[in-house]
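Dear Dr. H.,

I hope your travels went smoothly. While you were away I took the liberty of generating a structure for the chain from your last submission, since the lab meeting agenda had it listed for discussion. I wanted you to have the full record in hand beforehand rather than looking at slides cold. The sequence, exactly as received, is reproduced here:
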Amino acid sequence: MESGPAIFAGTAFTLFGGALLLWTTVRALHGQPVAHGVAPRTAVALTSLSGATFLLLGVWCFGRL
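The corresponding predicted structure, in token form, is as follows:
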């Protein structure tokens, strides 16, 4: 992988994953729904899993440099 695209992809994945985890945490702590029409625990679990996946994918991209 070339370093330019790897840096861009790593930055994008890391920022998105971190922002998704932060957003999910804030919504859950304030008792607001994370996803409409979905059970609260299921929504928190799935968005947390997605955020962690994107965060790890970003770290993996940075590790490929």
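Two observations you may find useful: The mean pLDDT is 93. Residues 17 and 26 are 14 Å apart (CA to CA).

With kind regards,
E. W.
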